[in-house]
Amino acid sequence: MDSESTPVALARASLHYFLDKGTILPVPDNVSNVLEGRAGVFVSLKKHSQLRGCIGTFAPTRSNIASEIIYNAISAGTADPRFEPVVIEELSAIDISVDILEAPEAVDSIDKLDPQKYGVIVRKGSRSGLLLPMLEGVDTVDEQLSIAMQKAGIGPEEEIELFRFTVTRYK
User: Long-range contacts for 109-116 (Cβ within 8 Å, ≥24 apart)?
Assistant: First the structure.
């Protein structure tokens, strides 16, 4: 697709390659500057405006952003436990977005959150939950925190550590 950004084109190519060949797409030799550094990356798949898969890392786990995108795109399409794996025939109907995360920062008050600007990470011991910013239907800090805590299995009465982060979203 001509109008896709470089990160999204790489995500689509890696998922197609994996579905077609059953192996991981090698990182391209000449990656753009935006894909060279290290960062957490989330890849989200939507089909007919409905979530079809979303997998990511809040901190870098690979040698560069390009590699994070390649692995997370495959996971979003084939390993999100909420959905059946994507099949190659439906790939052209799937919209992909790639969020490249800035490093999370601890915050001491919910007053420093804004679901349109910041993603959130909640943590209680070994349990943690993350919610990206700018999600449709998540308009308040309370909604954002509630969803992140549910994902982590943290009850509403429990004390949490709170982190926020910004993303660069590519479509």
Answer: 110/141, 110/145, 110/162, 112/164, 113/141, 113/144, 113/145, 113/162, 113/164, 114/141, 115/139, 115/140, 115/141, 115/143, 115/144
